[in-house]
Amino acid sequence: MFKIVKAPNNILRSQAKLVKKVTPALMKVISEMIETAKSFTDPEGVGLAATQIGKDEQFFIAKLENHPHLLGQTGFVPVFNPTIIWFSKRYKVSLEGCLSIPDYYGEVARPIMVKVIYMNSNGQTVKETLRGVNAMIFQHEYDHLHGRLFIDYVLSQKSRLFKVTGKDKTGADIFEEVAL
């Protein structure tokens, strides 16, 4: 299991380098990243970028729903050297959090659909369109590889930031708005 790099560590603000080749050693890292992400249940880990484990390379895992590479199932997809080639003009505001910024959540407006190109674990180029939550997760993890965090969007979009201050009687998070 990996220890998650927390803000303000400089690697979270760095531009990651391209992966030259998907090797067995790199796939071992991917497997460990998946186990690390699965260990987070409150909140659930739905993605993890290389920079969040201290690696300066362009790869991440994303938990995608009904993904064709998973035969329509939901699970973690390894993504290498991703590029977003198109963004929809329609945006949706969602509450985003990040394992590198624990206990904070922000309202972030992101395109609801993206077209992406990336290399899969077999070294093949994949081109696909992602929608909804899959598009949101992909964009969040992609941003990590380029030194961007969800908090940057909260600030630039002048939206709201919240801190988890505890749990209510049902076990649900209690949020308190943070003044920016």
From TrEMBL:
GO terms for biological process: translation. SUPFAM superfamilies: Peptide deformylase. The keyword Coiled coil does not apply. Fe cation binds at residues 98, 140, 144. Pfam families: Pep_deformylase. Binds 1 Fe(2+) ion. Its cofactor is Fe(2+). It catalyses: N-terminal N-formyl-L-methionyl-[peptide] + H2O = N-terminal L-methionyl-[peptide] + formate. It is an enzyme of class 3 (hydrolase). The keyword Membrane does not apply. Keywords: Hydrolase, Iron, Metal-binding, Protein biosynthesis. InterPro entries: Peptide_deformylase, Peptide_deformylase_sf. GO terms for molecular function: metal ion binding; peptide deformylase activity. Belongs to the polypeptide deformylase family. Removes the formyl group from the N-terminal Met of newly synthesized proteins. Requires at least a dipeptide for an efficient rate of reaction. N-terminal L-methionine is a prerequisite for activity but the enzyme has broad specificity at other positions. This is Peptide deformylase. It comes from Candidatus Daviesbacteria bacterium RIFCSPHIGHO2_02_FULL_43_12. The gene is def.
